Amino acid sequence: MASHHQGGADLLSRIALNDNKAGMEGLDRDKINKIILETSKGSKFYENELKKEQQVNQRIEKMMEQKARITKEQLKQAQAEVDKLTCELERSRELGRVIVHVDMDAFYAAVEMRDCPELKDKPMAVGSMSMLSTSNYHARRFGVRAAMPGFIAKKLCPNLVIVPTNFDKYRAVSAQVREIFSEYDPHFMPMSLDEAYLDITEHLEQRKHWPETMRTYHICDAKTGNDADRSAAESERDELSPVLFEDSPSSSPSLSGADGKAEVFGTSAEEAVREMRFRIEQKTSLTASAGIAPNMMLAKVCSDKNKPNGQYRIPPERQVVMEFMKDLPVRKVSGVGKVTEKMLAALGIVNCDQLSQQMALLSLLFSGTSWHNFLHISLGLGSTCIERDSERKSMSTERTFGEMSDAEEQYSLCRDLCHDLAQDLQREGLKGKTVTLKLKNVKFEVKTRAFTLQYAVCTEEEIFAAAKDLLKVEIDSVSPQPLKLRLMGVRVSGFISAEDKKPLQRSIMGFLQKDGSDSGSFTQCAGSVLKAQEDSDGASFLKPQSTEMKVPSVSDLSNTNSGTDTTSYVNKPAVLKPSFKISTQVLQFLTCPVCNTEMKDVNLTAFNNHIDECLKGSAVDNEPTHLDAPKEQEELNSKPPASSSESRALKSSSHDPSCNEEKPSTSISVPLVETDEDGDFKTPFFSHRTKINGKRSVISKKKMPVCESSCKASLTTTHNLEAVTEMSSDSKGSSLTCPVCSQPQSTDDLALFNRHVDMCLNQEVLLEFRESHPPVGHSDEPALKSVRGQCKNKNNNQQQQQKRIINTLGSSPLPPSKKIKVLSTKHTIDKFFKSNAGQKV
DNA sequence: GCCCTTAATTGGA
DNA sequence: GTGCTCCAATTAAGGGC
Predict the structure, then answer these.
(1) pLDDT tens per residue, range A236-249
(2) Are A215 and A344 in a shared domain?
(3) Alpha helices of A552-603 — where are they, by DSSP H?
(4) Which of A22, A164, A198, A538 is 20 to 30 A (C-alpha) from A590?
(5) Could you report the per-residue pLDDT of A310-331, keeping only the tens digit for each?
(6) How far apart are CA A827 and CA A820, in angstroms?
């Protein structure tokens, strides 16, 4: 019944104008929707939206059926539960914090208008013909808003000026604004370039005692700003604000007075926030809106209330909070989107009062987490502690393009994406085990396909090895028809945590960095290795690396993934060995990477012997080796077209991040402190505050299964390699006998030989470990099998192998102790425009 | 059949 | 001519016991 209420328009709720935005009240919706509809109709996008809409309608139907089956008894019981929980929540209601949400008004558009006066009185938007990110208030009167494609906006407003994004500029302005934020709350939480939460409780406490002089701000503040910007901005400000925001109250009333040179702000929360907005306007010539409330949920709603260029406060009184919530449409609450809105509307719920009334029903129709969230909302509860985002859980890149049906082209694009993603991952020093491929066909249908590897990856080759297999399955599944794509994306997730990385890395890094210097020394080491090796015996074993290793072919990688040639990328003795060598020159004393004992004045042989002993004793506790190959996909491993792999190989050689002297330093030393490209998190230290209420449910992560954490005996046979390599060096080029398996190796390549020995050693250690540690489950079986297989398998590809070795070296992360937690922000629009800036679809 | 894990999808910002 | 990135929650499916 309710679902028919809106009649035909109901079918179009996804396409129709979303006027849930400041500056869009009282528009002629029907007229605007008609234009949007006419422009969209018949397109593939439209068809897909219709389909999705119908899916939602089906969900609603199901829900209504379920509702019809609910008995009075059930409802009564549900109500009891709701009441009980309500009581508990009420008891723990926290009103003591003063939370502020600040939001710049039409941010990107405002920046562009500030810098280009001709735009001031025109309807304009920032973005492109395919997508807009912001519009000014002028344009909003036409129904033009963010997240609307430019070509539709043009239909709504033919005179609309579309300005391309200037991301650097927004970032710079954002940095200026954040400087001000940090004065009110050093731990403020940026949500995007134009938005942040602050907890000003402490600030207000101090502010009470401040003399007036500390609360006085002058109107001409040329010192802090950019002088050039300033003069222009100053002269424009008086005109700018009225044009932008016709009837809005000014953040600084005395500003308009010609003689007002300074303004004194009070000590209340309102005054502090007004002061903050005043300073933002002085510094950037842009206005901001703010909400002040006892929690984040309310503050966010409040900042929208008097937008633009206004603020609103909910005082910390339960009664007032409840009063405020009563009439609030649920859609205004962050987290309630158009689907939830529609589902609730079907139950007759539009505002929060109704939400509250129907809570028992909701508890029977929605999941626990969902209705708990509804309950929090209806009670006006939210998080009272500003916490920076936690560690990121995934990283991805995706691209939209014109229809692409050629498989070769698709593989090539996939590789490009992997390349970009690898760079991003390495910039942050991340490695993940799950690779996900995302595809959107020309009908706008989205598919994701994931594959979890046995080891964490971060290089282009490793990611592509998995991604291309996923792609192949999809291509084959529609063959002989081609896949007609309009978007492809690659994501890496399942990052190995600091915990998991710890054991080995701490010891090795500790060993390499005994002098206490930071990661730079490791880089230096790596560089020195190359150099020293060339100097000492210009022949060898590193030399081929610098030339050939850069060009692994796709087929090599496909081997990698098929389980025929996969070994640990992580503990690469062949790499560590030379590093050790150099280290002894650089560092005065040595630390055993296994037991952490410091050893002074020992020669390498003695040191190696020590490690040998140590390793025998404590191999179990060390880092996983992931000897196991990724799941077999034999039949999937056919090669992508040669031409594509070749062309890409060339590209990859020219800027592979891991095979030159400079890049490793990027992945080691840059990542964790102040890298953020978006200008975020310049402040490396954040204090932790406990959440009191309104917190999100956190599902505690399970520890690694037994097989993961224990069966990867440390196959860090680094030390033994010393001997092996030396031997190899002596007999370079001739036929070699493996010191482990005693089999002659018909290769004249030292690196390859080293690799063989490496594997043999790994097998030895594993077998030894297995004998002394009866299996807990059978989970370590595959690993064992795989090692055995590897030892027999001799069709290794030396280029790839060497490449991996270097990759390993290049991407070794910092020891955990040196790490500053990486915290992520999600700049949704920001990221989009950054990556989209250079390309036209 | 339950518990756990992974994969895939969805909704939201 | 309708975007990019990330997260949390939900659902589906498969393996182990």
Answers:
(1) 333 333 334 443 44
(2) no
(3) 554-562, 573-586
(4) A538
(5) 999 999 999 999 999 999 999 9
(6) 21
pLDDT for the residue A500: 55
Closest nucleotide to A453: CA versus each C1': B6
Assigned token pair, A193: 């370039």
**CA–CA–CA angle A29, A33, A35 (5° rounding):** 125
Q: Where do runs of H (alpha helix) occur along A379-430?
A: 407-427
Total residue count of chain A as it appears in this document: 841
Token pair recorded at residue A828: 């949704």
Burial class of residue A392, CB neighbours in 10 A (0-12, 13-18, 19+): middle
Q: How far apart are CA A103 and CA A308, in angstroms?
A: 9
Instruction: Tell me how far apart the alpha carbons of residues A754 and A726 are, in angstroms, rounded to a whole number.
Output: 10
Q: Looking at the structure, do residues A192 and A76 belong to the same domain, yes or no?
A: no
* Tokens coding A274: 């007004």
Q: How far apart are CA A198 and CA A831, in angstroms?
A: 23
Same domain, A227 and A278: yes
Reported confidence tier of residue A12, pLDDT bands at 50, 70, 90: confident
For residue A478, give both structure tokens.
């529609």
pLDDT value, residue A124: 98
Q: Smallest Cα–Cα separation from A583: which of A666, A523, A663?
A: A523
In a domain, A701, yes or no: no
A284 lies in the same domain as A183: yes
Among A221-230, A377-386, A477-486, A695-704, whose mean pLDDT is lowest? A695-704
Show the domain range for A54.
2-16+47-95+331-378
Strands (E) located in A242-328: 262-264, 288-293, 311-313
Q: Quick check: A546 and A810 in contact, CB under 8 A?
A: no
* Whole-number pLDDT of residue A390: 80
Give A681 CA → C14 C1' in Å: 42
Residues A105 and A252 in one domain: yes
Q: What CATH number has the domain bearing residue A367?
A: 1.10.150.810
Which residue has better confidence, A66 or A245? A66
Crossing angle (nearest 10°) for helices A460-478 and A407-427 = 150
Q: Give a yes or no: residue A471 inside a domain.
A: no
Residue A358 maps to a domain: yes
Helix, strand, coil share of chain A (percent; to 5): 50, 10, 35
Residue A264, token pair as written in the block = 């004194």
% chain A with pLDDT above 90: 51
* Whether residue A110 is found in the same domain as residue A185: yes
Q: Residue at minimal CA–C1' distance from C17? A: A777
Which nucleotides of strand B come closer than 7 angstroms to any CB of the protein?
4-13
**Given its phi and psi angles, is residue A301 left (phi above 0), alpha (psi -120 to 50 degrees) or beta?**
alpha
Q: Give the C-alpha separation, A680 to A686, whole Å.
A: 13
User: Which residues interact with strand B by a CB < 7 Å criterion?
Assistant: A 52, 55-56, 59, 191, 333-341, 434, 436, 446-452, 702, 705, 826, 828
Q: How far apart are CA A630 and CA A783, in angstroms?
A: 10
Two tokens at A95? 């009103």
Half-sphere CA count of A368, side-chain side, radius 13 A: 4
Task: Summarize pLDDT for A453-495 with one digit per residue, the tens.
Answer: 999 999 999 999 999 999 999 999 998 999 999 999 999 999 9
Domain end, chosen from A265, A289, A316, is at A316
Report d(CA A343, CA A338) in Å as an integer.
9
Asked whether residue A278 is assigned to any structural domain, the reply reads yes
Whether A144 and A135 have beta carbons less than 8 Å apart is answered as yes
Nearest protein residue to the C1' atom of C2, measured from CA: A149
Q: Which residue is nearest to nucleotide C16 (CA to C1')?
A: A777
- The answer to whether residues A172 and A280 belong to one domain is yes
**Rounded to an integer, what distance in angstroms lies between the CA atom of residue A326 and that of residue A379?**
9
Say whether both A298 and A174 belong to one domain: yes
Tell me the CATH number at A105. Answer: 3.30.70.270
How many structural domains compose chain A?
2
